[in-house]
Amino acid sequence: MKPSKTAIVTGSATGVGAAVALMLAGRGWNVTINYAKSEREARESEAHCRATGAEALLCQGDVSDDAACRRIVQSTLERWGRLDALVNNAGVTTFAGSANWDALDAAAFARILGVNVVGSFQMLRAAAPHLKASGDGAIVNVSSIAGSQGIGSSVPYVASKGGVNAMTLHFARALAPQVRVNAVCPGMITTRWFTDGIGQEAYEKLKAGYEQTTPLGRACSAEDVAEAVVWLIGARTITGELIDLDSGMHLGGMRAVVPAGK
């Protein structure tokens, strides 16, 4: 019997990470579920994956800590003896607003860059030899339109996602041909990320504006992002792509309507 493929999904207690883990489990993958603080939600994510018939491993660790990254990878290898995919999803921000510079200091930058950029690099570095050994390894970084459009919850968040995008291109070259490296860049996502950060009322207003101005008229769900991530894991001829999941926002934020002729 062919052994199941194995993936690590960082930040997979809730939201996009949990959706990716569950979708992979539903396709028969073994999944390492990583979390930093949300143990209760992580155990729920683990249970949902196991309910599909897949195997799941719970692994606590803050990806800004290099020792934790190495432990996550090593625990995965000890459990299943292989690693086929890494999804760098763990991320943090501060909802300071793009113009509220006085709310930011060096500590805020260090924390956000430490998780979003350094953490992604440390996970990649720990995983790369084992992804190469799989013969068909894949890395998908969960980035954001913040990195390409310069908009987002705060300046350090924007900078961090620009860094993730640049690293994606670098490692797509550096790890080829054994490992493919891509990124998804969502716009607004309908998870608790926004409601926790800006409150329900502001979230509803933001969502309504996004849906009214983007060509497709909808925000991403966690499952929408997960579908793109899982597709990229299996896309054997794609590497070095930064895929916008923004309902066409990058087209200019307006729905083109051509009036009828006379």
Describe the structure.
The chain has 262 residues and is an alpha/beta fold. It has one domain: NAD(P)-binding Rossmann-like Domain (Rossmann fold, 3-Layer(aba) Sandwich), CATH 3.40.50. The chain has 9 helices and 7 strands, in the order E-H-E-H-E-H-E-H-E-H-H-E-H-H-H-E. The protein has helices at residues 15-26, 39-51, 66-80, 106-134, 146-149, 155-174, 192-198, 200-213, 222-234; strands at 6-9, 30-35, 56-60, 85-88, 137-142, 179-186, 242-245. Strands 3-2-1-4-5-6-7 form a 7-stranded parallel beta sheet, sandwiched between helices. Strand 2 (30-35), helix 2 (39-51) and strand 3 (56-60) form a beta-alpha-beta unit. The model is unreliable at 256-262 (pLDDT under 50).
Defining traits:
single chain; 262 residues; alpha/beta; Rossmann fold; 7-stranded parallel sheet; 9 helices; 48% helix; globular
Helix and strand arrangement:
Layout: E1 6-9, H1 15-26, E2 30-35, H2 39-51, E3 56-60, H3 66-80, E4 85-88, H4 106-134, E5 137-142, H5 146-149, H6 155-174, E6 179-186, H7 192-198, H8 200-213, H9 222-234, E7 242-245
Helix pairs in contact: 1-2, 1-9, 3-4, 4-6, 7-8
